[in-house]
Fold 3D-(3,5/4)-trihydroxycyclohexane-1,2-dione acylhydrolase (Decyclizing).
Amino acid sequence: MEHSTIRLTMAQAVVRWLTAQVTEIDGQRVPLFAGVFGIFGHGNVTCLSEALESVQDKLPTWRGQNEQSMALAAVGFAKAKRRRQIMIATSSIGPGALNMVTAAGTAHANRLPILLIAGDTFNNRLPDPVLQQVEHFNNPTVTVNDAFKSVTRYWDRITHPAQIISSLPQAVAAMLDPADCGPAFIGLPQDTQEIAFDYPAVFFEERLWSIPRPRPDRRAIADAAALLKTAKKPLIIAGGGVRYSGAETVVARFAAERGIPVVETLAGKGGLTHYHPVHAGPLGIIGSTSANALAAEADVIIAIGTRLQDFTTGSWTAFSKDARFISINAARFDAVKHRALAIVGDALESVEELDAALAAWKAPADHMPRAKALFAEWDALLDSHQAPTNTAIPTYAQVVNVVNRAAGEKDTLIAAAGGIPGEVAKGWRVKAPNSFDLEFGFSCMGYEIAAGWGCAMAQSGPGAVGGTPIVMLGDGTYMMMNSDIYSAVLSGHKMIVIVCDNGGYAVISRLQQFKGVPGFNNLLKDCRIQNADSPLHVDFAAHAAAMGAATRHVESLTDLEAAMTWAKSNDRTTVISITTDAYSWVPGDADWDVGVPEVSTRESVQKARDSQIAIRAKQRIGV
C-alpha cells in the first residue's frame, strides 16, 4: 500500500510539523506551540525564516532584542501556562546560539519546557570555517551548540532531513513528561535546512498531546500512610510541582482535613493564597519565622513537587536530623533525596491515594492551631517592617507592600535575582492562586523583564490567570538586561516594571560583609571609579522612556502609590523607578552554607569561618 508524501525542505517540514501539534487546556483545544521568539542571522534567516514567514498567522513570530532574554521570555510564558503550552526560541549560529544557553539553564533548573532551535555549521564542511564557527582542532563535529548538552533534557543535531521524523516527537515527549520536563534543543545545520525530502503526509497530521499523570506505587503509598500515622507534628512542603500538576485544591483539602500545615517553596509560593487557612508561610533562607519554626520541630515532612533546593532546606539545617521525609514527585531523582520514603508519581494522584490510605487519621488537634498562631505572629512582623516610617529612603519591604496593595487580584508578581526575591517571598501576600513567579531556582539576573513579556503573552486564552504582570527588580538587574521593555512596547504586551534603585548589587554586598569581607565591587560606591565625576545612578525612567514605555520616577511611598494607580490605567508597558534603602531587610531565620576562607588574616573572616563551621554541624546527612 502506497502512502502519499509531501516534498518539503527540512526547515519547512519542521515548521509544518510544529503547527500540527495541539493540546487541551481547560477543555479547549489549542496549539501546543503558541509562538516563536526569534532573532535571525545567516544560520536561520534564509531557510527557517522562509518557513516561519509562511505560517505567521498560525505560529506567530516575535522579534526579540537579545537571544538570552527572548528565550527567558519563553521560560516565563511556560511558567505562566503551568507547562501546558510551549514557546519556541530560535537563533543563528555562534554567539546568538550561545546567548540562549543561560535561558536553557534557567529552564532546566526550574523543570520548564522550551524548544530551542539554533542554526549550525555546514554538515558537508565545504565552506569551513564559516562565519561565527568555533573550530575544535581535535573534533570537527563539535560546534557551540554542544554547549546546550549540559542544560537540556533533549538534544539533537539534524544531519539528514529524515531525522526530524523521529526527533521532533521525542523532543515534545521530553518537554511534556512531568518527570523529565525541561528544555529541548534542536540544531539545524545550514545545508541540511535547505535539502528537500519526501516526507510521509501522515507526519503532518494534527496530533493531540496530553500531559500524563503517573500513578504511584501502591506499596509506597501504604508505607507512607503508615509513617504519617506516627507523626505528632507533620508538615507539608508544597513545591512548584503542586502548581504544575494542578493539585493546589487537592493538597489544600488534604491538609485541612488532616490538620497538617502547609509551607511553601519559592516555586510553590502562590499555590495557596496568603490567608488560606492551612498556609503557614514560605520556608527556608528567605522564608518566614512561622514556616521555619514548624520545620525545625516537624517529625514527618511530606515534600510535594519540590527538588528541595538549599534555599528551601536552609542547606539542610532547617530540619531535625531525626525527621523523616515522604517525598511525592513525578521525578524519581527528586523523590529519593535525603533518605526520603519516595512516592514517584503525579502530585494530584499521589495525594488523593495517600489520603484514601490514611482512613480516619488526623494530626493531633493542637498542631494546626499552633501553626496558625505562628503565622499570625509572622504576619504581624511583616506589618511592622512594611509600615511607613519617617525615614528619607523607603525600604524594600515598604515598597513591596505598596505594590502588593495596589496589585489586582489576578495581577502576577514576577521577580528573580538580587534582594527582591527575599522581600517578595516573605512579604508579598498572594491574593489569587498562581499569580506569583519567583525564579530563584537558577537565580537568573535578567529573567524578570523578559519573563514579564512572556507572561503578558500568556495572560489570555484558556488556563490564563489574567491581569497584568508586575515585575519587581533592582537597579543592578535592570542594567544587566532591560531591552524587552522595548519588545513589550513593540509587540503591544503590557507589564508594569518597578525598578528599586539601591545603588548596586546590595544583597550580595550584604552577604559579602556578613562573611567578613569589606564592601567591595558590589555597591556602586564600593567600585573602582576612574572618573570622580562619574554619575553613580542611572535615570531609569528616562532610559525606559527612550524605549517607548510610560515612565515615572518617585521618591516617596505616597508617590509610589499614586504611580501604581496611574500605571494600572495605562494601556502600555509602564516603568516606575524608586530610590530604596540598601541596608534594611526583613529578617529570616534559616542558615545558608557558603564557602568561607579557611585561612585569612582578617579577624572578621575568621569569625565568619567559625560561624560557618557551626552551621555545617547542624546539617542533615544527605544519604
